[in-house]
Amino acid sequence: MQPASEFNKEASAALVVAVKAGDYAAAGEAIRLGADANTVDLPTGRMTPLHFAVSAGRVHTHDPPAFSGSTAAQLTRLLLRYGARAGAGDYMGFTPLHLAAFHNLPGVLDLLLGNLQQQPGRLASLLLLQDSEIKYTPLHCAVEGHHASAVVSLLQAGAAAGLDAKDWTSRTAWNLAAVHYPKFAATLMADLNIALARSSE
């Protein structure tokens, strides 16, 4: 990876703009011109291009998506190819992995997990990482987003090691599902049973 001093600042700024807008061609051009795939956008709380890619351009959690899930996957793949870090934290400590688990755009979480599987120690630590504000792990984020498939993917990747991790209100991810989202919890249990059955075949 290049030293920070060797990256083109203008291209890095252009990369942020391109990814936030879902402009794949412009993002690729910015990288060709020397953009840093891990540049931080200070006005949006130190989010990186990968934060924007995995959340379809959202700055705030409940903003509408700026582009499609397929574009999000294309941008995620591009950024990972050029060294974007799935564990880069924003000002609250949320990583692209947290956001990918919450939004669960098609294929995006699997891309991050696949990339991290090449660094087993890093994957294990990021699956257990809690943000600095509400103490959510990626598993909490998947539950908060009501994405059973994301929960299954995280557990299969090793998140089960952090099932006892508690948020700022002392809730584990299971507590969060069972107490606050009982209908989702029922769906989740069904999906987990299916996943377990398939893994034992």
UniProtKB/TrEMBL annotation:
Output the InterPro entries linked to this UniProt entry: Ankyrin_rpt (IPR002110), Ankyrin_rpt-contain_sf (IPR036770), Multifunctional_ANK_Repeat (IPR051165)
Q: Does the keyword Repeat apply?
A: yes
Is Repeat included in the keywords of this UniProt record? yes
The record, for Pfam families, names:
Ank, Ank_2
| Top-level lineage group | Eukaryota
Cite the entry's keywords alphabetically. ANK repeat, Repeat
Q: Which PANTHER family match?
A: ANKYRIN REPEAT-CONTAINING, CARD- AND ANK-DOMAIN CONTAINING INFLAMMASOME ADAPTER PROTEIN
Can you say what this protein is called?
Answer: Uncharacterized protein
This protein's species is: Haematococcus lacustris (Green alga)
